[in-house]
Amino acid sequence: MIKPLRKAVLPVAGLGTRFLPATKAMPKEMLPVVDKPLIQYAVDEARAAGIEQFCLVTGRGKTALIDHFDIAFELEATLAERGKRDALVLLREEAMPPGSITTVRQQVPLGLGHAIWCARAFIGDDAFAILLPDDLVLSQTPCMQQLADVYHETGGNVLAVAEVPHEQTNRYGILDIGHADGNRVEVNGLVEKPAPKDAPSNLSVIGRYILLPEVVTFLSQMERGAGNEVQLTDAMAKMIGHTPFHGLKFEGKRFDCGDKIGFLEAQIAFALARPDLAPAVRDFLKLYANS
Ligand code: UTP
Known about the structure:
There is one protein chain. This protein is an alpha/beta fold. The protein has a single domain (about 5-290), classed as Spore Coat Polysaccharide Biosynthesis Protein SpsA, Chain A (Alpha-Beta Complex). About 35% of the residues lie in helices and about 25% in strands. The chain is built from 11 helices and 13 strands. The strands form 3 sheets. Strands 5-4-1-6-11-8-12-10-9 form a 9-stranded mixed sheet, sandwiched between helices. A hairpin with a 2-residue loop joins strand 2 (about 30-35) and strand 3. The model has no long low-confidence stretch (mean pLDDT about 95). The site of uridine 5'-triphosphate (UTP) has 21 residues, from helix 5.
């Protein structure tokens, strides 16, 4: 029987060194794209896929993320007093049901795999989603919904995958693929950050996963991989053969907002997708293109 998908783990304990000094006193996941922080996009996307329980894996200096999901009592009172109805509605629409967010602490950032392992009590015996908030996807159907549709049909583990330039395979978790059926591929193997000459394909895992709870057993081995970190990719690779693994070439475009160029591109793409902003953005882009 395929268990329902109700839980998501959001690892947010990374140091965000590529965005210093912006991330010195503020978490990377609070950086806004247009007018919404990255963390909010991730939570909204998960909620749209029916996910109700969230676990943020946090670290030092990440309290702004937790405050973001709290009720801003004084702010709401001031907005009401000043008749700022639209702003108030916006805040209330995004309010989370009480008890839906829990946090665990990853005291030392030992890698993404270690961050997920820190959420093991939350995961329990359930299949769960992982969303890396610095990966942003612009699509017709929210990316996690696309993965959840595959999960509900097939069960097993489901990974969002995207093609990357062959010379950049050393930046990503890369798939060894088996049978392909339309936009779905069978995953035969996974390698973290292979050199282009060793890469089994140019299909990369992006920051959206649905995993079975067995992954925790493999993470518990605490084996260090690329960058001397406990890699999620390595634990997933060990599960292949024991549990089914599907890759989904999702519809939409992914932006790596942990990287400056990816972040800037996301600002433009998300602004152009907004009818209230697109005309002005198009005008200024023309201006810069000609300068
Ligand atoms: P990144 O590889 O982007 O690392 O992590 P980072 O530390 O956030 O950023 P840079 O490379 O120093 O600029 C991918 C995701 O995994 C989380 C991060 O918060 C991010 O969501 N992560 C990474 C953890 O939660 N813990 C870790 O030990 C490592």
